[in-house]
Amino acid sequence: MTIAGLISDAAPSLTPSERRVGDAVARDPQAVAFGTVAELAARAGTSGPTVVRFAAKLGFSGFGELQAGVQAEIADALRPAAARIRERPAGSVLERALDADLDNVRATFAAIAPDDFAAATDLVARANRVFVLAGEIARGTGITLVTQLDLLRDGVVLVGGTPVRVARALADAGPNDVLVAIEHRRYERWLLDALDDARRRALPIIALTDRALSPVALDARHAFVVAARGAGPFDSHTATTALVHALAAGVAARLRRGAIARLDAVELAWVAGDVLVDG
What torsion, rounded to 10 degrees, do the Cα atoms 34, 38, 42, 45 define? Predict the structure, then answer.
């Protein structure tokens, strides 16, 4: 099980100060992997003994073993698919995939602060336009978000293609718009360049990415760290997709009246055009 999964399972037994340690670990695993007990305690606003008790409740013998576990997860996440496919893990593929994705979704949602998520959905609901920027591997998830948001509101744009096309799409973007960036590690340079351009334009950014120190999360208004451990050689995007569904659901709740009218109009157009076939 991942460290984030262990934190999620141990949550009912954690004290408030231990939960703060868990939040600090989930939000910035790099700081745990290469930091000290005192540094983690300071990040969580608590004491060193609390950090040690937290590690014990997760099943570790102490901070050193917790740190080693976090380091191992980071090292595993940085290995390319070409290296992972050479492994021969034991057990059923279906069981491993189910365990990994359940852990991913639980860990991702457990690390999200409700107020932060509410503010992000409100930003997407109120923005003049919503630009969705997704890397090649995450593009399917980006299309899902664009498709759902486009049924709820206008001004939703999927950004991608050549650098010229990307620059043209963001040419007049500004502070009253919002950009949702979705990307996991081994980040594509064109996407990071587009984010740099967005920052220069003071365009608010909502980041869905794989770690707190990801370049995608840099200066983001809201950054959500997504667990992405896969059962095979590839990262899983199940938790990212689940978060996208949650984001669209939150926007729908905020735009309820306008979204109802828009969905009704879309439904009427589908019926009039006889474009759907009932099963």
Answer: 120
